[in-house]
Amino acid sequence: MTSADLVLPPTDQQTPTAALLQAPEDQTMDLAISDMHVLLEQHGYVVAVYSAGLPAAHERRLHSVRSVLESDRIALLKVDLPPLGIAVLVRQLRQLSICDFSPGVVASAARLLPHYIHAGALLNSVTKLDRVPVSLKTHAKSWVPGSQFAVVAGPNPQLVKVGPAVEPPSGPEFGTHLLIAKGQSQSDWVHETLAPAWKVQAIQEATLPSDSSRWWGTGKLVEFAAYLPDISVLYQLVASVRRENCHWCGMELIGDRCGFCSSPLPPPENRMHPGSVMNQGAAVQPRS
After folding, report:
1. Which of 40, 107, 181, 273 is 20 to 30 A off residue 264, Cα-Cα?
2. What's the whole-number mean pLDDT along residues 73-86?
3. Confidence (pTM)
């Protein structure tokens, strides 16, 4: 991970913690290379997840370290999720890392699991929100005192102006837990309205990630993420996807792209069997 506040507490005693890959201003290049070398020696492979909004200098540092070490055992995975959603994803990958999946499957699962993380926030203003499409009309409404907006960044972007007669954004059709992190807003709307509407099975509190205010364009927010908490369900989801071998680096993968070298799968006509199940959408059984 690239930020310590994105490392959520483990769900059980078996779930490992995550290593921190520090920013250039916090660590010299020599120390960054040394730390990565130690991780490779201890664990064999490194799956590094970072935000699409990571400062360019920090992203360049990650690629430079991999280049200097000339290692094909380092996966650098850029994820376009809000900060709390990334924290959830990283914990899920930590859970999967102790299962019988290869490093390549764990790395490429980082592209599958976000389809099952409903990440969003309750905002007092959307005037500086540039991560989710916002109309000029909605921008104008955000200037009205007391306005609140429920925004879901993924898997399907949604924006709803909160009001007594307005339905909350549509949520997951399967059982989830809801993680909530409050910023400067003290609204209980997520607890009292969204959670019941989404029929979540449990609610947990978390500390708001330091990058959330920048990501959402305001500090007056309550960030949330609904996710699959059960390791057995995560395991079944990943195991249900056809596995391939990367034609470039040989790593095992699921989906249409290698998590380690980023090489796409060849067209179906150049492979021995039909396309990946992931492209068709792996199934999670809806709640009855």
Report:
1. 40
2. 97
3. 0.89
